[in-house]
Amino acid sequence: MEILHKNLYEEILYDGSQIESNWAFKFLGIKGSSIITWKGPMNINEENLKDFEDIGLEIKSDKMIHFIVEFFDIQTPNLNIIYLRQRLLVMIFAEKLLEYGVLSKRSGDDLYINSKKLSVSIATISLSSMKIHFAVNLTDLGTPNDVEAIGLLQLLDKNNVLIFNTDNLDFFINTVVNSYIDELKTIEMDISKTKTL
């Protein structure tokens, strides 16, 4: 499976519309399975909510890293598979944080640091594709008042030095995406060499 990654450098508001099918093709001309990443605020319109539990809640933040993932490799699209792929992305993100000395805790598809919420995510399907939105706070600014949040740009090492900054953030994003793509390709290769029962 070929997966194209494109990191956008312009700031884009995530309002929930980007989870729609073929968004990368309609707005960026990218065909096929893809991962689109960018930094920007989030404020999800209620009509764009995909999780029934989120109806009536504020889902917002002033600045986040966004991952929009879309797969076309499985027809008919399968909710179970996309939720497994979503969890895989979240776990790889946590694994890469640990390489920077940051211990996070996963609860479902959310990551927490010291009980403070770091990320949000949703997975869904359309008639032709499977999609993930995974977003990670860069700061806690603009998050809902009833949510204790934390961002990557607030994390300190044991010497009280910021772990992430504008110089290493894109490298970190690329590392996460490349590891995720490699994991999916490895699964595909393992399938291709497995003798069935």
TrEMBL record:
SUPFAM superfamilies: Class II aaRS and biotin synthetases (SSF55681). InterPro entries: aa-tRNA-synth_II/BPL/LPL, DUF366. It comes from the Archaea. Pfam families: DUF366 (PF04017). This is DUF366 domain-containing protein. It comes from Methanobrevibacter curvatus.
